[in-house]
Amino acid sequence: MSPIDKQKSIFFKFLSIFSVVRIYNILIIVIAQYLTSIFILSDKKLFDVIFDFNLLLLIICSSLSIASGYIINNFYDQKKDVINKPIKSKIDDVVKNSTKLYFYFILNFVVIFFASIISLRAIIFFSVYIFFLWFYSHKLKRLLFLGNLFYSLLTITPFFAILLYYKNIDLIIAAYALFLFFILLLKDITKDLKNLVGDFTENYQTIPVAFGEDFSRIIISLITFINVILIINLFINFSDGYMNIYYAISLILLLIFTIKLYNSKRVSDYLELHNILKLIIGLGVFSIILLEI
Questions:
Q1: Of the candidates 249, 239, 244, which has an alpha carbon nearest to the alpha carbon of residue 280?
Q2: Quick check: 19 and 87 in contact, CB under 8 A?
Q3: Coil, helix or strand at residue 167
Q4: Mean pLDDT value of segment 81-99
Q5: What is the distance between the alpha carbons of residues 85 and 64, in angstroms, rounded to a whole number?
Q6: CA distance 221 to 210
Q7: What fold characterizes domain 1-142?
Q8: Phi, psi of 54, rounded to the nearest 5 degrees
Q9: Could you read off the pLDDT of 96-126 as tens digits, one per residue?
Q10: Of 158, 145, 161, 153, nearest to 178 (Cα)?
Q11: Greatest Cα-to-Cα distance within the chain, rounded to the nearest angstrom
């Protein structure tokens, strides 16, 4: 193999690893953790929070745990991803499964090592989190509705690490966490509609597989209604700064989502719905800044 071919091979392997660990999702979570710390939880100055070494270690542990979770999830979902995500699956498969598992164990070891620098509580917290990330991918993901619930819980778990660090469980955090939980639940069930063919083929007991698309739309509509109630609650009780702008945009996007839901039949339609919910989550992260404006 020529030097140029070797460079291309290394580049594609790095691209594959970044695809597997979904680096863009991890970056969003890192930003969300820092913004939550700066604008909600900490009473310290900006640079004191940014250069807080233990906070940095905590966020690194969260990021590496999530990355390892994506790796093990990719390992177990390989067959259905070939059906549901053929292009992404080809990119992910550039790296061998054995190499992915090697990275998985290395990342988890690093997480526990860094957690040991923080505290014993951090070791216990991340050990339990890593276990449930594996258990979700191995077993829970295939179970009816439990898979969706645990996906949402595991996604918001890194924020509980920040809460425990600051020992500050504010009411506004609980309200936002509840809203985020139901948006994530909505997103995951919508994703199941998008992935119906692969899930059915590999015997994943999702709501669309078990009850069909029409019943899934009813469930999604009910959860959307819950989210609307939660946004109204946030609007009434937690309208600090210019957060009303985010609440209004979220309500409009959920309205568009609901209208499109009943006109969606193809995978591309469900992908659009899924992206609307990702937009709500992404805007929610950066809207934290509005609390201080």
A1: 249
A2: no
A3: coil
A4: 81
A5: 24
A6: 18
A7: Tetracycline Repressor; domain 2 (1.10.357)
A8: -65, -35
A9: 888 889 999 999 999 999 999 999 999 999 9
A10: 153
A11: 64
Reported as a single tens digit per residue, the pLDDT across 118-148 is: 999 999 999 999 999 999 999 999 899 999 9
Residue tagged 């906070």 (tokens): 55
Picking from 135, 144, 152, 150, the residue whose alpha carbon sits closest to that of residue 73 is: 135
What gap in Å lies between CA 21 and CA 18, rounded to an integer? 5
**pLDDT confidence of residue 250:** 95
Quickly state the pLDDT bin for 22 (edges 50, 70, 90): confident
The CA–CA distances, whole Å, from 204 to 134, 144, 174, 195, 219 equal 16, 8, 32, 10, 18
Amino acid in the structure at residue 43: D
Contact of 66 with 158, CB cutoff 8 Å: yes
Q: Measured between alpha carbons, how far is 128 from 110 in angstroms, rounded to an integer?
A: 15
Domain spans in the chain, listed from the N-terminal domain onward: 1-142, 170-293
- In this prediction, residue 293 carries a pLDDT of 65
Q: Which two tokens stand for residue 280?
A: 């709500």
Residue 180, burial from CB neighbour count under 10 angstroms (0-12, 13-18, 19+):
buried
Query: pLDDT above 90 covers what percent of the chain?
Result: 58
Contact assessment for residue 29 and residue 158, using Cβ atoms and an 8 Å cutoff: yes
User: Hey, what amino acid is at 241?
Assistant: G
Please give the torsion angle defined by the CA atoms of residues 225, 226, 228 and 232, in that order, rounded to the nearest 10 degrees: 140
Using an 8 Å Cβ cutoff, are 161 and 61 in contact?
yes
Across 85-118, b (16+ Cβ under 10 Å) vs e yields beebbebbbbbeeeebeebbeebbeebbebbeeb
Q: Do 99 and 19 form a contact (C-beta atoms < 8 A)?
A: no
- Say what the pLDDT of residue 89 is: 80
